From TrEMBL:
Keywords: Lyase, Metal-binding, Tetrahydrobiopterin biosynthesis, Zinc. The lineage of its organism: Eukaryota, Metazoa, Chordata, Craniata, Vertebrata. One of its GO terms (biological process) is tetrahydrobiopterin biosynthetic process. CDD domains: PTPS. Its cofactor is Zn(2+). The gene is Pts. Its EC number is 4.2.3.12. One of its GO terms (cellular component) is mitochondrion. This is 6-pyruvoyl tetrahydrobiopterin synthase. Pathway: Cofactor biosynthesis; tetrahydrobiopterin biosynthesis; tetrahydrobiopterin from 7,8-dihydroneopterin triphosphate: step 1/3. Involved in the biosynthesis of tetrahydrobiopterin, an essential cofactor of aromatic amino acid hydroxylases. Catalyzes the transformation of 7,8-dihydroneopterin triphosphate into 6-pyruvoyl tetrahydropterin.
Amino acid sequence: MAPPAARLARVSRTVTFSACHRLHSKSLSDEENLKLFGKCNNPNGHGHNYKGKRLTALLTQIDPVSGMVINLTDLKEYMQEAIMEPLDHKNLDKDVPYFAEVVSTTENVAVFIWENLQRLLPVGILYKVTVHETEQNIVVYKGEETISE
């Protein structure tokens, strides 16, 4: 009898965190920032309950012994360290060093989460990070770094 073929699966887990930020680029004047970011450029910032921070394992083989792609307890701990500890109930611009020089857009929040998770997860397992800033504003990041010109 032939051994069973390797089965591949993707696993998702969602966390929610609250944070505030101000959309403001040091490369622009105050007037340009206000024009570009509008009310989101408020000097006192504004907050979100970011929902649906999700990571998906990339076509990873299901372990034939455990029956899992990844132990969900481990995944929960990785997400706690990579997402919740640095971001939850924080002022992104003031409390998270990454955003001292990077505008705290949802796109860049997704990149931040991706980079933090990449450090913790087994190589090649991370497929995408999805960040829901609001019900209408959603960013998906799959690790793309540059576009060839």
